[in-house]
Amino acid sequence: MTAMTSGNTGTSARADANRRRILDVALAELLRDPDASMDQIARAAGVVRRTVYGHFPSREALISTLVDEAVEALSAAHAAGREGVRDPAESVARSVLTVWHIADRYRLLVALAQRTVTMQGIRERLAPVRETSVRILQQGLDEGVFTSPLPAPALAYVHEQVLFGLMEAVNDGLLDTREAGRSAAVTVLTSAGVPAGRAAALVAEVSGQLHQGSEQHDAR
């Protein structure tokens, strides 16, 4: 019995490792070539096509899984960015800058996913992040930090669309990727009624703090 359990565990571990490798390679291949086929992904991963289909029954299922992982990463970044921050404007600035750092890796995937997962499917996956954003925006509106003719749920929806739009602008070469994160944060803040000068100064301050924190983390 022990030998069988050990064998099953080993097989499961190999299957998990194969699945992880396929996902990692698929993301790289699809970002390099949005039309990459399952055959191309299998070759790049060093496995036969049957192995890829054993984990993902279709290309759409593979892309859907990648989108799920991207949303999970974005959700974690959104939470980490605002952790311990009380001021709504700073919370928004930090969350947008932290999310954009992750989103920049996935922006081509989001564009690709619109062909298969659809924007509605992506929005549904982002519902928990949106709910948190609504709470922060409502707090800011209640405290007078934000001013908008829109209620918090509608404003959160607008911010989401702004970020998707800026991703497309980077994809189309209309916005420098190095400035995109700051531009996104300032745009979101000003659309919530924060004066442009205040928004730019806050984003510059927060960006510097995040960059310094990242350097200190890398130095450890």
Question: What do these coordinates show?
Answer:
Residues 37-56 bind DNA. With 220 residues, the protein is an all-alpha fold. Helices cover 81% and strands 0% of the residues. It has helices at residues 2-32, 38-45, 49-55, 59-82, 88-113, 119-125, 127-143, 152-171, 177-191, 196-219. The longest helix has 31 residues, at 2-32. The protein is elongated and about 60 Å long.
Q: Helicity, in percent?
A: over 70%
N-C termini distance: 45 Å
The assembly state of the depicted protein chains is: single chain
> Count of DSSP helices?
10
Which secondary structure elements does this structure contain, and how are they paired or packed?
Layout: H1 2-32, H2 38-45, H3 49-55, H4 59-82, H5 88-113, H6 119-125, H7 127-143, H8 152-171, H9 177-191, H10 196-219
Helix pairs in contact: 1-2, 2-3, 4-5, 5-7, 5-8, 5-9, 5-10, 7-8, 8-9, 9-10
